[in-house]
Write a structure and sequence with these properties.
The protein has 16 helices and 18 strands. With 417 residues, the chain is of the alpha/beta class. The protein has 2 domains: 197 residues, Rossmann fold; 162 residues, Nucleotidyltransferase, domain 5 (2-Layer Sandwich), CATH 3.30.420. It has a 9-stranded mixed β-sheet with strand order 1-9-2-8-7-3-6-5-4, with helices on both faces. A 7-stranded mixed β-sheet has the order 10-16-13-12-11-14-15, sandwiched between helices. Helix 1 packs across helix 2, helix 2 packs across helix 4 and helix 13 crosses helix 15.
Length: 417
């Protein structure tokens, strides 16, 4: 069954519609399919905190694809909820940061875990399970976890395309489907809403998925040559850092690009709004960036570049020009790109970065200008440091040059009040 969340069963109590739909559900499995910034993860975790406080000795497990995803998503939201609720703090015995476990005075726990495979998922039983960003988790892992969950399962995801939730769960009598989008999040800034809605003029399929929470078929991904890695190899050579400026609505994104054995290795450093140039300098220092490291930044911000230079940083503007976006993409597509697991925001951007389509549905050589505040600095490094035919790549042989082919390659009251 699917609920119309615009008519919540708790009218008059106030608070989040999504919280009410999940808290009052009696389904065995509650599926939260939602667009970006709908508040689904936050609402589900509010429910879990309430359940843990109201019933003694519960075991609640929150699962994501890997630990970096947990820390950047579900665990961060849980800590925000905990820090903003005095009643919740009074009900808490301890938060074990190392094991990522909230322990309550009544003996209940909420644990945050990831599993490498189905065999790993066979360990442990629980009362409630929350599978966060379920399209990053295999059916085999979910199935083993579900078999060992006694009471209820909550699931959430952005519906980029259909996967095992659609094939095996939705439509079953014991499954409740809740579809939400940013309009159901009462705490979102209007500027963010406007940005999400602007997807409609760029790509209708993206708009359906991220602005309306509808199952889509996102095609035309620009980069299919990137792979996950655990860390940067010790012998990889640092090429440069890339920096894209933002402030109010757009994030300031920074990453490091390395090369080893003809492959690129990329590690995200920071991705935040509200950073001044002084804040950026502090972030660079905190991330261990040396002042001798060349930083390729957005040349459209000459004042910011000059500010950082005067602070002692080695900053260079990206060499933009006609077709620079397409050219930098072409350069990057020649390489195998290895992205660290901790680069959560870069990974999310790579999974959303697509070519625009015209009114006839034909793909054009222009990317959708959204979710690119780490991809852009990656492009800047490509433009300045990887461009074939630059000063460092002059052909010295007198033989004819033959180009190499490119590779294809009450707590309850607080929560609802």
């Amino acid at each position: 069954m699917m609920d119309d969340i615009n008519a919540p069963p708790f009218s008059g109590l106030g608070g989040s519609v999504l919280f009410g739909q999940n808290y009052f559900s009696r389904a065995q499995i509650v599926v939260n399919q939602g667009g970006t910034s709908s508040g689904k993860t936050y609402a589900i975790e509010q429910v879990l905190f309430c359940l843990a406080c109201q019933t003694a000795k519960l075991v609640i497990t929150v699962v994501a694809q890997d630990v970096p995803n947990l820390k950047a998503g579900a665990l961060r939201d849980a800590l925000n909820i905990y820090q903003q609720s005095e009643a919740l703090q009074n009900a808490m015995k301890n938060f074990n940061k190392t094991d990522r476990v909230f322990e309550f005075t009544n003996g209940s726990i909420i644990e945050f875990k990831s599993y490498d495979n189905a065999q790993d998922a066979k360990s442990g039983k629980r009362d409630y399970l929350f599978v966060n960003e379920a399209n990053g988790i295999s059916w085999d892992i979910y199935h083993e976890l579900a078999l060992r969950t006694r009471q209820r399962i909550f699931i959430d995801y952005n519906p980029n395309t259909g996967f095992w939730v659609h094939e095996k769960l939705i439509g079953q009598p014991h499954v409740q489907l809740i579809i939400s989008d940013h309009r159901h999040n009462p705490y979102l800034d209007q500027s963010v809403r406007d940005k999400i809605e602007s997807l409609k003029k760029d790509d209708l399929e993206l708009w359906k998925v991220y602005a309306r929470g509808l199952t889509g078929k996102i095609t035309g991904l620009i980069f299919n040559n990137w792979y996950l890695c655990n860390q940067i190899p010790d012998d990889a050579r640092l090429i440069a850092a890339g920096l894209d400026f933002g402030f109010t609505n757009d994030q300031t994104g920074c990453l490091l690009v390395y090369r080893q054995n003809g492959e690129l290795w990329v590690n995200e450093l920071f991705y935040e709004t509200g950073l001044t140039n002084a804040d950026i300098a502090d972030k660079l220092k905190a991330c261990g960036v040396n002042k001798t490291t060349e930083i390729i930044a957005d040349s459209a911000e000459p004042k910011s570049i000059e500010d950082l230079k005067r602070m002692g940083w080695h900053v260079t503007g990206a060499k933009k020009g006609a077709d620079s976006i397409k050219n930098s993409i072409d350069i990057l597509k020649r390489y195998k790109i290895n992205v660290t697991r901790t680069s959560i925001n870069l990974r999310n951007e790579l999974n959303r970065y697509i070519w625009r389509v015209d009114q006839s549905g034909k793909t054009i050589n222009q990317p959708v200008d959204k979710w690119n505040h780490l991809i852009d600095p990656l492009r800047y490094v490509a433009l300045n440091k990887l461009k074939v035919g630059g000063e460092g790549n002059k052909i010295k042989s007198r033989l004819p040059f033959v180009p190499r082919p490119r590779s294809s390659a009450g707590i309850f009251e607080q929560m609802i009040g």
